Amino acid sequence: MRKEIRQIRLHRKAYDFLVDCAYYYHAKSLLDKSLFFCQKAADFATFNYCGFYAEGRLEVLLAKISNRQTQPDQLPKAVGEKLRVLHYATHVYAVGGHTRLIENWITNDAGNHHDLVLANYEEPVPDFITAALALVQGQLLRLTGESPLEQARYLALLKEQYDVVVLHHHPNDLLPALAFSADGGTPVAVMNHGDHRYWLGAGICDVLVEIRDNLIVPDRLHRQVNELCLLPIPVAARRLTTPQYTASRLALDIKEEDVMLLSIGASYKYEPIDDRNFFLDICSMLDQDERAKMFVVGIAPDTEIARAYRHPRLTFVAPTRELDVFRNACDVYVEGYPFSSFTAYLEVARLGKPVQRMYNAPLLNRYELTDYPNPVQYPADLKEWKRDLQRLIKEPDARKIQGQAEKHNLALHDVSNWQAYVGNFYNMLPRLKHQFKRLKKEKSFLDENDIYLYKMQPVFNVGIIPYHFYGLSFTLKCKLFARDIVNIITTDKMIFKDIVWFLFKSSKLADVGNL
Q1: Which residues of 145-176 are buried (b: 16+ CB within 10 A; e: fewer)?
Q2: Which domain of life is it from (predicted)?
Q3: What is each CA distance from 402 to 295, 351, 409, in whole angstroms?
């Protein structure tokens, strides 16, 4: 058996153990402790591939916890010609494609009413989100309540004031699953911005909004969601003039004869996997042609990865929203790997710039739409990747031809086309009624795409201190050691004497009232 499969199965055992702990405390009516382990299970599955993309036992338990609470009284829904759309987000960020999807939905659909509710009450909000809401006279709402159950109750009450709720939540966010476990009322959609990984909430999802249609078929299986629709990432059309191109290159000290290569992404997206090492490969390419200059935006020059790959024609730029100067100046966009940044390269391709995509890309790293007029080219291997990139560096005509093909494809992402897609989504709503679904237990997904996801995720220990296990049953305590999972969910090391004390004596010190 491959070592990766053994590790994935170990991850599944650890996840199942954490869910078992949550059920144990739920049976004892210790809801705070049960929710603690629910959160740890969701955290673990989010950052350690466990062989699934949706999982039902945890969602059923969250529904049980929620249903033990008094359901909120429903307020009358506002009536008007405009659709009322509530967007929910766990967090919003100044940089990154996830928050941009929220901004673009609101600004490109200004004919309807949009509000945004955030889980984190004190989190700062980027100016562009505030401006988008102001454009549609929408509100920025914050969840009230001191506990997750109080916040979920408020969110459930809020839901019925709208025609649809769109979740832009983080994979390990418990609140939507707690808030929307009751059947009936306003439908709930999930914006599948984390389409490559596990996320919590498939059981409460009435319609899954996909940003690429090459994952629709797999997601029917992975998420057990029947209603899906396509809503491509919107990319506004923008004409790049020769003076803009020249001025941007001057600002970046790029000579006329230089060929500027650009890649945009956070540092974790470039961390090597096996023999896939973006910076090693790009430095090799830079050595072969002195005309090539590489800019990587999203990684500060003083970070470890930037210091590890120094080259006189490789420039690292800290994360910034001021990207136009780099987009305008570049000649070729080079997709980073092993993990792609779709929004980043789509916005450059819309300008008519060629894109050098990663080689031998797994499904989770391919962005393709069936309706593209031109095929999307992914090199088969590193040798082909180098050959294609060398050609784009050396041949202006090749850059022009490929850039025009990219531009024609990206016309599908224009606002007018995007509005047609979102109209199709809204047309689905009248026939949808919210319903909680019990997910079937599926066999583990262990093909090459799944193995790649496992490799992309660094080992993440949820760091539970042993004290939190003191109150468990003797059987569960034994499972912690018998299944060899103790070392991947707790940072404390136990010798034999500690284990004996833990199994037979620790329950006397368990504080059953508080965690």
Answers
A1: eeebbebbbbbbebbbbbbbbbbbbbbbbbbb
A2: Bacteria
A3: 20, 12, 11
17 and 124 in a single domain? The answer is no
Share of the chain above pLDDT 90, in %: 81
* 195, 246: one domain: no
Residues 6 or more apart whose CB falls under 8 angstroms from that of 27 comprise none
Q: Which of 444, 452, 436, 437 is nearest to 15 (CA)?
A: 444
* CA 145/CA 312 separation, integer angstroms: 53
For residue 514, name the pLDDT band (cuts at 50, 70, 90): very low
Determine the Cα–Cα distance for residues 71 and 157; give it in Å rounded to an integer. 9
* Together in a domain, 145 and 250: no
Domain that holds residue 93: 84-234+420-431
Helices 97-108, 127-135: axis angle to 10 degrees equals 20
Tokens representing residue 451 in the block:
């193995």
Q: Distance from CA of residue 182 to its chain's centroid?
A: 26
- Cis preceding-peptide flag for 76 (omega within 30 of 0): no
Cα Rg of the chain (Å, integer): 25
| 251 lies in the same domain as 306 | yes
Q: What is the rounded end-to-end Cα distance, in angstroms, of the chain?
A: 39
CB 167 within 8 A of CB 200: no
Distance between CA 292 and CA 251 in Å, rounded?
17
Give per-residue pLDDT as tens, 135-177: 999 999 988 888 999 999 999 999 999 999 999 999 999 999 9
Domain presence at residue 514: no
In 124-206, beta strands by DSSP E: 140-142, 164-168, 188-191
Closest CA to 191 of 90, 339, 59, 47: 90
Contact 96, 78 (CB under 8 A): no
